Queue: 3 jobs
Job 1
Amino acid sequence: MNVRVRFFAATRDIVGQRELDLELSGTPTVSILLEELMRRYPELTRIVSSVRVAVNREYAEATQALAENDEVALIPPVSGGLDLYEITEAPLSMDALARAVGQHTSGAIASFLGIVREYARGRRVVYLEYDAYPEMAVAKMREIGEEIRGRWQVDRIAVVHRVGRLGIGEASVAIAIASPHRHEALDACAYAIERLKAVVPIWKKEVWADGAEWIGSTVDEYWSNDQFPTTNGGASTRPLAIGNWDFCG
C-alpha cells in the first residue's frame, strides 16, 4: 500500500524533504506509519509526542487505518501554541513534551512521567497492556485542561497516554505543564494526574508469570479515594511529592 506523507517545520528539517511516498504492507494504521518513519528517521522520536497526524486533511488517532493513496501529514505544534491531548501507541518522550509546552512567558515546567513498575499488589509484573476509548479519553483530557485553566495561570498543557503492550520501565503517561510560576505548574500537574486517573477511560491489564487481570485506571493500591479528601471537582488533595510519585499507570 502506498501513502503520501507530508512534512512541515521541524519534521521537514529532520526528514530533509517536504513529502515522500511510503510503501506499507498489510493493514497499516497511523501508529504503524509513525513507527516506520521513526525507524527511518530516528530523530523524529525526539518530537513525535508533540506531533499531530492528519489523514486526508482531518486529524487522526493513532489507531486509524490507512488506505491506498491516503495523504498523511505530520503537524508539529503551531506557533503560539496549543494544548496537546493524545492517546498514542508510540513511545513517550518527556523532553519533547517539555519543549512543546515551554513559552517565553514560562518560568517553570512541571512534568510527570508514569512508568511501568515490576511489582504491584504483591506480585511480579511481566508487562502491562493498556486499552482506551480514544475519542472519549481525549475529550476528558481536554476537560481536565479546562479545569486547570480555571484554577491556575498556566501557559500550555500537554497530556499524553500510551496504549498497547508496555514493558517494565517504559513510560505509560506523560504530563507537562508550563506556567509563569513554579507553584501553579506543580499544583496543576498534580491535579492533572489525579483527575486523569479518576475520569479518563483508560484500562490496564497486569500480566504476571501465572496469570493476568484487567484493572481500571482509577485503581492504585497506594491511593484510594477514602484515604485523602477530595475537592468539589473530585480530585484528591493528597500532599504533593513531585518526582517521587509511585505510579504504575
Job 2
Amino acid sequence: MVEWHDIVWFKKAVPRHLFLLWMAVQQKLTTQDKLHRFGIHGPNGCSLCLRHNEDHKHLFFECSYTKAIWWDVCDRCDIPRMIKGWDEWIRWATVSWHGKSFVNFSRKLSFAATVYHVWQERYARIFVGMSRTSNLVFNQIECIIRDKLDLMRNVVPTNENKRIQRAWRVNNINS
C-alpha cells in the first residue's frame, strides 16, 4: 500500500472526487506537459492563470487561480498556509491526517473536492469554452463540503470540531 492511501481512499467521500484525486496524486492526469510529451502539440499554457506552463504541480498548487481556492479551503479547514508545493502538500497531509476524526475527514474531503473542481474548471475552459472565477469554484466546493459535513451525525462537540463546522457553515453543529 502506498503511503498516501489514507488521504485518497476514505469512507463517506464523493467517489468521483476520490478517483480524480488518486489520478492527480500519481500525476497521471493528461495535463498539457504530458500531451506534449506524447507528441500532441497545442497550447502548453495553463488554462486557469494563462501565465505558466501546465503540469500537475503548477495546476494543482502553484497556479495563482488555484492558489486562491486553496487559501480559502485552508482557512476553512484550519490548515496552515506554510506548505510550498504539491509534493510537500501530499507528504504533509499523509503524515498529518491520520485517523478518522471529524477534522481529518473534513480536510480529506476538502482536498479531494478542490482537486476535482480545479480539474473540472480546466476541462470547462479547454473543451466547453466556459470559465468561472475562483470564487465561484470555491462556492461550489463549499456547498459540497457543507452538505457532506451536515450529514455527519454524532460529531463530538470539541472546540476544534465546532470551529470547522462553523467555518463551513454546517447546520447541525450540536447533532
Job 3
Amino acid sequence: MPAAAMTPALRTVFVMACLGAPSSVLTRALKVNGEARHMVSDCDGMQAADVSSDWGRMQRQAASALCATPLHRMYMESWVDPRFLGNYRKTYGRDGWIEEAWVNYFKAMPNSIDFMRLTDGLIESIHRFSSRPIVLVNFGAADAHFDPERFPRLVLLQARDVSKLGVSFNFNKFQAALLSKVKVGVSLDSDMMMATPMADSLFTRSREEITEAYPHPMLPVHFLDRDPVNLKYYDGTGNYLVYQCAGCPKPTMRWGQAQPTWTFWSLPFLGRWQASKLNSSLRQGVDTANIGEDEDLLNVALWTEGASKQWCMWQPGGVGFVSDNLYSEHSPGPHFNADRSRYVKGTPIAYYFGHAEKTPKKVEAALSFLESMKNKPVPKVYFYDEKFYTEFTELAKANPEVPHLCIL
C-alpha cells in the first residue's frame, strides 16, 4: 500500500543503518570517501556523551570497551544516507536520539533481489501496522534503493561491516543497536513481517521491564529447546537441538531467539559482550572466540549475568499463520514447541510477527490477506494450551504458571 494511501494512524517510520558511527546529524559531518556524511555516532562523540542524561551515560559506558581498541574505532561510526536526511531530521530528537524504534540490520548487495524484496516487505508491514519508526542498518556498500517518500518514517543509516574482523556478519546486530541511538529498541530481521498493531506494546513493556535495576536485553522464547538437561529425553525427533560450549554456564531460561528488545540501560551489556567477541577474549569465564553466532552469544551472555526475564514467543515461523491460525483461531497444534523442563504445555504465542519467511511472494500474499481483513473484527492475538485470548493478562490469569516462564 503506498504511503499516500495510508491513514495517518497507520504510517510508520523505518530507520536503516549502514555500517558507520552514530552522532547528531544535525550538527556534525565527516568526510567519508571524499564526501560529507551527516554522522550519527563515532567514538569521539560516544566517549564525550552528555552524562547528565542516563542514555548518554550508558552510551559512554558501552563505548569504553569498544573504542579502546584502535582497530575497532572505525566500526563505531554510522552516518545517514543522504537521501534520508529529511526523514532523519523529522524522526530523531534535538539530542540526536530517537525515543523508540524498530531496528533492522542488513547488507545491500547487487543482484540480491529476493532479499531486498523481503526487506521491502518488512518496511511495508511496519508502515501499515506500527506507529513507531524503524531503524534498518545497512552494512553493505550497494544502494538499497528504498524511497524516503514512500516510507516517510524510514531512516537509512550506513555503517561498516564487522565481519571484516573475522566474526559472523550477524554480530552487526549488536552494532545496529549500539550505533543507531535508539533509547528503546526492538531488533528485527529482514525475513520478518509485522501482522498486528498490538506488537507496538513491546516498546511500553520493554520500558517497564528493562530498567536500571534490571538492565538486560530480553529475547522471545525460541521454538527450539536447547537445554542440555533435556538431552536425555531426545529421541531424534521434535524441536530439540542441544547447545553446549566450554565454560558456558547453566541456562537460566529457555533458549531465546535473537530478536532482542532493549532500553538504553542495556547498552553497556551489549558493548562489553560485543567488545569481548571482537577481541576473541574471555568474559566471566566464557571464551567468546568459540561462540560463533549472535544468538548464541546473547543467550550465553544473559545466562552468565544471571538474567531471568524473557518474552513469550512473538515471532512464529513463516507468515501463513495470518490465515491458518490468527484469523481462523485454529490451533498450531497441541503442546506447541513444548519441552520437558519448563514449557511442558507448549510455548505461549503472540501473533505479532512472522519470522524466517524466505519467499517474497508469501509475504506479499500475507500482506494482501491482512489488507482484505482490515474491516473485520480484531482477532485474538494470544494463544496457549489450545485456547486463544484477547489480552495477555487474560491468558496469564487463566494459566498462572505462564508469568513464571515468560511475559508480554
